[in-house]
Protein 1
Amino acid sequence: MNGRLVSQAEAVLPVNTAAVFYATNVFEGLRAYWNEKDGELYAFRLAEHFARLRESMKMMRFTVPYADLDLYEAVRDTLKGNDLREDVHMHLVAYVSGTGLDATSPTGLYINPRRRARITEGSGLNCCITSWQRTSDNAIPIRLKSGSNYQNGRLATLQAKADGYDAPIFLNQGGTVAEARGRPSS
């Protein structure tokens, strides 16, 4: 978190930050795969994830103080510091630690590594069409990976689970399929 390895208990944000109060954050989900033969973790497409993170930060008008080299080092330090020797999924999150709705800086960064098994073929999902409509990209840019954008999916997922399904399928404003999840959350 912000250049230091810290415990989960130490990784906290003040409640009055824009990140907490207004969900002013962007993120990328990064995967790294353990190769037993090589004794190495191999991260998947970091350059593309870093470019999308940077684009999301620009769209949210964050101050962007991170070069790709900084991000590569942060991922490497996180993986090495947690002594991971298995497949892992990480959330790389950039957030505004300033206060107020119009805050764009200072920008913080954390990486939250979580052990997660590989996705296997043949594990289907029991899905439903949700009554929640997929948010229009011209209302809030859905291509933006921001915590606030996930409330639409969260509400639909809660509805699907309450109705006995694994996951929702969204329709758009025209009534056609717009989005579905690839796997249930864990």
Protein 2
Amino acid sequence: MLPIALFALQAAAAPLATDIYLADLRVAQGRVSIGAPVNVTARPGYDNQPSFLPDGRAFLYTSVREDSQADIYRYDIDQKTSVRLTTTRESEYSPTPLPDGTGFSVVRVEADSTQRLWAFDLDGSRPRLVLDSIKPVGYHAWADARTLVLFVLGSPATLQIVDAASPSGRGEVIARDIGRSLQPVPGHPSVSFVQRDSAAGPWLDELDVRTHRISQLVKAPAGADFFVWTRAGIVLTASGTKLLQWDPRRGSEWEEVADFAAAGLTIITRPPVSQKGDRLAIVAVPAAR
């Protein structure tokens, strides 16, 4: 069986027809509320992996078009337009803004199928290798200006931490058998991830990137895969057509925020939040086009 992370990286071969929706997000008294979702990439094919730029006026995403090539696009929220940023023979996935705001990093599937971390300028120019020796990379997150946390494919997949500015660029294995979701925790030098356990089931954990200490947070709900944090410190995830929240300060269980079935959304997979905390992007399979 292929590692689960290869699902996204095989999109060009067998793309899932996903669209990206935008919705307003508000947090009041520890409760998240979501406005009506609007489909902003309504077309046949694979549009996925949105990541908001720091100013919140646009997001980057992966798209597979008629040429069956996975490239990075930018969607301008005010202009309601998409612009293609990469046009390469390789495939690029998981666009993530660089900490200094000068560009974005991607997982690139190279000509020989090697998966490594690369970076581009904001306009899609000047491709350069970020990490030479760590492969195959499935997913990544910037914990700070130079610290990367990686999901590295293997049996099992490993969580690795690496100093991107180090000449060696070697990763340190911190955990094994992890999920795909890696997300910086607002206001903390840490990244959350999913630790899988055959007996206890999957749990959302937090890795302190300075001390390398891991803290167990909350049991993951059934069907949940990706987890994101709001500026208010609330965790959001999706299960089926439902958006759920967990507030660590309240010590509550997972609570339903919204059910998007009535809006025609099925199989919600990713709910990233803008850095300003005012918008939510939702990746879903439309019930009908």
Protein 3
Amino acid sequence: MRLGLALPNATPDGRPLTGPALIAGARAVERAGFDSLWCFDSIGRGFMIPDPLIAVSVAATATDRLTLGTGILQVPLRRPVELAHRILTTHLICGGRLLLGVGAGSTKADFDAVGVDFETRMQAMHESLAIMRKLWMGERVGAADLKPWPAALGGPKVLIGSWAGKQWIERAAKDFDGWIASAAKTSYATLADAIRRYRDAGGMRAIVTNIAADLDQPTAALPDDGPFHLRCGKDAAAERLARLAALGFDDAILVPRGHAEPALAALRALHR
């Protein structure tokens, strides 16, 4: 199982994020030996995080080997042709290292902030993905013809974010390049059931993201119906990651309390 990390949203000493801190954070994650770096997506929740496509593009220019992912990009918040163009540009900059995690979104505040209907988000995602995939292949859709650069033709690998959905997990297995679950929304038991369904449908790459990690917290048992997390001691955290690997997840993406290099080293040592 590969181990990834969320991009920092603050400086190492907790001050508000700056451009240099974002770049330094990406480089620190790579130096610490993690396999991937991930950016999230929110707009209307009362706090600001970097735009995921811009952030992974910046991280790509600052690193050499990290896989770069969006976990997840909320497709219905954007117009599909414009988004397809931005994604192709990001794919070009990342040089084949981009994993595009996409989803319909689950937080109404984000939709209210941009004036998009929340109730029709599933249909909007279905329609937008179909449009974007055609455009990435160089097809014309209505008046839109992006004519992708040869190095970006076909677009990036697309993974579907779905926490426990009855429709999109199976679609991720059959029609896309992978599936992304969220530990922040999901218990260990639900993760176990969902990955079984994904593998039964023929799915390949399975990623669990949003795993809160704080090794300075006292260890307590995970509640049966609570989110999966690593807010516990080192031994317990290593055991929990081993349980995820045993379920068959290919990647685990941690969200640490901070990105100071000693903390990153301790997290990386949990799983090799």
Protein 4
Amino acid sequence: MQYREISRPFVLLVVVFLLVCGGISTRTQSAKTTAQGAAFASPSPTPKNREEVPQDSDEVIKVETNLTNIFFTAADKNKRFISSLKAEDIRVLEDGQPQEIFTFQQNIDLPLSLAILIDTSISEQRTLPDEKAAAQAFLENVMRGNKDEAAVVSFTGDTTLEQGFTGNMDRLRRAIDRVEFIPPSGYVGGGVVVNGTPPISGTNQSIAGSTAVWDAVWATSEELIGTSAEHTRRAIILLTDGDDTSSRMKMHEAIERALKADALIYAIGIGDRYTFNVNEGSLRKIAEQTGGRAYFPKHERDLNDAFMQIQKDLREQYLVAYSPTNKARDGSYRKIEIEVVNPDLKQQNLKLNYRAGYFAKTANPEPATTRKRSGDQ
């Protein structure tokens, strides 16, 4: 009897001890499991604001893959955007060979990285105030806080960075305000320059007052666009008459550099039509080859309409992704074609706008120069 009275508390004590030990063991095992899960999770960079990279685009854009991504727009004969296309409505060809589509997405609304290039040469003297006002209005309408970014570049024979990439609209306004026409030495107006003291312009006194369009596009693509934020839609808005008089680079070199930077070029052909001509052919070519468009406004309203069209073009896009059948990492140029195969849609003669090709990756790619957006510059 005495034994039972002593053993009952002892047994209870043993049970409590075992329960406590079991709880500690369970928590320890749970902690180990959690730690192991964290150790094997895929490493990721500092996350962006949720709005900056759409969740529905992660598989194609955010993760490094061997897919080729092509953005395109579709419009009918009245230039109305078509937003109802499906993957089975189109066919993608690379160098004439059909490609299997892995991803097809509608209305890809990526953050934008825009470079505004403003021609300040003699031919833009009269129209420059309207260009600046339209550029400011465009940025005010298109820029979304903490999501998009823009830079401002002016050029004549030289290319000048007025403002690096920033999402701060006040800085962009001030940069555009600073852009001005500076007449070369001996300039008497109306496009006429008489002999006088040569102006100083960088290291070359002969380029002041000239126009180096292709140099400006090349330099912007090479040195500026590459520093834009990751996972953005890149575009160059080029305001010029397209009359290149002093570039060292050729137009095809500027196009190639823009393609390698994955930048669309939207050319707005504008200038002093009373004295100078707009080179529509060159501007159409550089825009279409990079997947952009060219506009030739005749009035201020046309200029504003062009900017509105560009904004819509950048927002209402399709994304098609495929793994090229040509796996060679040789840096070669690959020609792209997107065809409408739906019989009903083919009858509508839809206009598809996309870049004409791309350069394949190389076995030893150049170090990435892109940055994560961490604040205004």
